[in-house]
Amino acid sequence: MRSPRFSMVAGLLLALAGPLLTPAHAAGEEDQIRSRLQQAVPDAKVVAVRASAMPGIYEVELPGGMVYSSADGQFVIQGDLLQLKGKQVVNLSEQSMATRRVALLKAVDRRDAIIFPARGKPKAVLTVFTDVDCGYCRKLHQEVPAMNKLGIEIRYLAYPRDLPRYGLAGGAGRKMAQVWCSSNREQALTLAKQDDAIPPARPGCKAPIVEQYQLGQRMGVKGTPAIFNDKGEQLGGYITAPQAAQLLGLK
């Protein structure tokens, strides 16, 4: 199934493939890029336009990722921007995304996450976008006690993959709303991932499931589990506790 990011970016590229009927009349290059993109795809939300490290090319931030544009907005490139530095290949797109993710994660209220704290003094924090019905999410959850023992704090955020289809009325979204509104959310999350009965939700509770799903999209989440370190780098999907320790540089 195609991701929302793919569909949006693909829609942009298809629309921009044809000629634009009216030239953009913007004062600056950034305004001109915005004007052309929004003229071609009126529903497209351009979050930001920034000059990239490549001369004459601009980074265009969309809710689901990034594309690159010429200064006049007539040409759009989809993909990563790489810089060759001797024998090193630097992914500038991932660096930019990581910086953006750090800011997004800092804005999350700690009380909205389900936290499995490290034992003793925390050595690292991992933020995990999870789905209670996802097989590898369940498998990862079995590694959490070992990660906690290694000094790794796990912060769970909700990313029910079937949310666009069922909303909060059914599917994983409904279960996760119940988990987030349980009096013991850590226990409820574990029970949900074991296919056991979830305790009743607290009356009047509004779970931030939709908001966290949208946050995941902005961070470029394409599947679950999606694991991020405190530098905004995505460490991948399912990993074991020893692998997590290695990736985090813990001994």
What does this entry look like structurally?
- The chain is of the alpha+beta class and 251 residues long.
- The chain has two domains: 4-100, Disulphide bond isomerase, DsbC/G, N-terminal (Nuclear Transport Factor 2, Chain: A); 110-247, 3-Layer(aba) Sandwich (Glutaredoxin).
- Helix content is 37%, strand content 20%.
- It has helices at residues 4-17, 29-40, 92-106, 135-141, 144-149, 163-166, 171-180, 185-193, 209-218, 241-247, and strands at residues 48-51, 57-62, 65-70, 76-77, 82-85, 88-91, 114-116, 124-130, 152-158, 226-228, 234-236.
- The strands form three sheets. It has a five-stranded mixed sheet with strand order 7-9-8-10-11. A four-stranded antiparallel sheet has the order 1-2-3-4, covered by helices on one side.
- Helix 7 runs antiparallel to helix 8 (185-193).
- The longest helix is centred in the middle third of the chain and has 15 residues, at 92-106.
- The relative contact order is 0.13.
- Mean pLDDT is 88; it is low at 1-8 and 12-27.
Runs with pLDDT <50, length 5+? 1-8, 12-27
CATH class of the largest domain: Alpha Beta
- Strand coverage percent: 15-25%
**How is the largest sheet built, in terms of strand order?**
7-9-8-10-11
As for the number of domains, it is 2
Radius of gyration: 20 Å
DSSP strand tally = 11
- Principal-axis shape equals globular
Mean pLDDT: 88
CATH architecture of the largest domain: 3-Layer(aba) Sandwich
Largest sheet: 5 strands, mixed
End-to-end Cα distance, whole Å, is: 39 Å
- CATH fold description of the largest domain: Glutaredoxin
What percentage of residues falls in helices of 4 or more residues? 25-40%
H/I helix tally = 10
Structural class: alpha+beta
CATH superfamily of the largest domain: Glutaredoxin
Order of helices and strands: HHEEEEEEHEEHHEHHHHEEH
